[in-house]
Specification:
Blueprint lengths: L1 E4 L6 H5 L4 E4 L10 H11 L2 E4 L4 H4 L8 E4 L5 H6 L1 H10 L5 E3 L1
Parallel strand pairs: 1-2, 1-3, 3-4, 4-5
């Protein structure tokens, strides 16, 4: 399963979940690309997109993409760090086109 984290997600997610193949939007040189185009790029190459952008679900037609999306409640490192066990489990249980809020 290929996972990508949005540029708003702390890098701690990538570093502290080595059991997953996680790359960042920055690693792909996609930083600064607007959500609509970014999601099309992500859906073409990845299975799961992790973000903390709460408006994403309302601004984009996620159902049209073969991509699972995991929404974090915050991009604050202490909050994300406390949720790392749940974040690490989520990709193993999520299905394509599913939207999961942690």
């Amino acid at each position: 399963m290929k996972i990508i984290i949005d540029e708003c997600v702390p890098a701690i997610v990538k570093r502290r979940l080595p059991q997953h193949n996680i790359v960042s939007v920055q690693n792909m040189n996609w930083a600064g690309i607007k959500n609509g185009q970014l999601l099309k790029l992500v859906a073409a190459d990845f299975d799961v997109f992790i973000t903390s952008d709460k408006s994403l679900r309302h601004q984009q037609n996620l159902a049209s993409l073969d991509l699972a999306v995991i929404l974090l409640p915050s991009n604050q490192v202490p909050t994300v760090e406390a949720l790392l066990p749940k974040i690490g489990e989520a990709p193993t249980n999520i299905q394509p086109k599913e939207f999961l809020e942690i």
